Automatic annotation (TrEMBL):
PANTHER family: 3-OXOACYL-[ACYL-CARRIER-PROTEIN] REDUCTASE FABG, SHORT-CHAIN DEHYDROGENASES/REDUCTASES FAMILY MEMBER. This is SDR family oxidoreductase. Keywords: Membrane, Oxidoreductase, Transmembrane, Transmembrane helix. Belongs to the short-chain dehydrogenases/reductases (SDR) family. It comes from Adhaeribacter swui. It comes from the Bacteria. The chain crosses the membrane at residues 12-33, 138-159.
Length: 253
């Protein structure tokens, strides 16, 4: 009996920012689909807790994607210790909620450094091996901020809009080498941070829910299941797309 096209058994996935939030949800979904997973992040304690939670199919490596000089070494370490990387999920990112007129250059640069420059450097290094093997799937996490004008996040929106443009070019550059490149645009996904932010801003909460046709907030597993689909053979003829997983928020009125 043929295995499911959604099956990731035998695949090795590298997930940045995999210790919490969406990254943790993606790691959990990948494990359920049979993959081995390496999670990275800046905080060793958080990564170790995630590994204990997720079980023996997960390992962790401490890394800050904003440290560009560390990235070739990270990729080399992962592939030497665990094997070739089949799936890369660029999930790590930082945000800044601040009025445009109050954002200074250093703050803007910090967002770009992590969300764009680090993401590109890691993608480039992982793609070198994938190109040799003529196989691979790369996933980016974009944002509603790349699709419409969310207030107070100019630097974040700039970084995510750039990632969205990069997805299309990378798909054109890398797909001939057997590497697919896609993105997921999460809507408002439930987390302690989101709920806390919206509880102190009832008008924003009303606006978010009012323009989400399916109502309510998404769960990290919703992003995880979409990531499994895009990383698997079920999506073998899909590249260069940005898939909103948002309950219809991006098209809601």
């Amino acid at each position: 009996m043929a295995s499911s096209p959604f099956d990731l058994t035998g695949k090795l996935a590298l997930i940045t920012g995999g210790g919490t939030g969406l990254g943790l949800g993606i790691a959990e979904a990948f494990i359920q689909a049979g993959a081995r997973v390496i999670i990275t992040g800046r905080r060793e304690e958080v990564l170790q807790q995630a590994c204990q939670q997720l079980g023996p199919q997960v390992s962790c490596e401490v890394n800050d994607v904003a440290d560009l000089d560390s990235i070739p070494g990270l990729v080399q370490t992962v592939e030497q210790k665990y094997g070739p990387i089949d799936i890369l999920v660029n999930n790590a990112g930082i945000n800044l909620k601040k009025h445009t007129l109050e954002v200074n250059d250093a703050e803007f640069q910090a967002i770009i450094q992590t969300n764009l420059l680090g993401l590109f450097a890691l993608t480039r290094e992982v793609a070198k091996g994938m190109t040799q093997r003529k196989s691979g799937s790369i996933l980016m996490i974009t944002s509603m901020a790349a699709l419409y004008g969310l207030p107070l996040v100019s630097a974040y929106a700039a970084s995510k809009s750039a990632v969205l443009g990069m997805v299309r070019v990378l798909a054109s550059d890398l797909s001939p080498h057997g590497i697919r490149v896609n993105a997921i645009a999460p809507g408002f996904i439930q987390s302690p941070m989101l709920l806390k932010a919206l509880e102190t801003d009832p008008e924003r909460k009303r606006k978010v829910l009012g323009r989400t046709p399916l109502g309510g907030f998404g769960q990290p597993a919703d992003i995880g299941h979409a990531a499994v689909f895009l990383a698997s053979d079920a999506a073998r003829f899909i590249t260069g797309v940005n898939l909103p997983v948002d309950g219809g928020n991006s098209i809601g009125f």
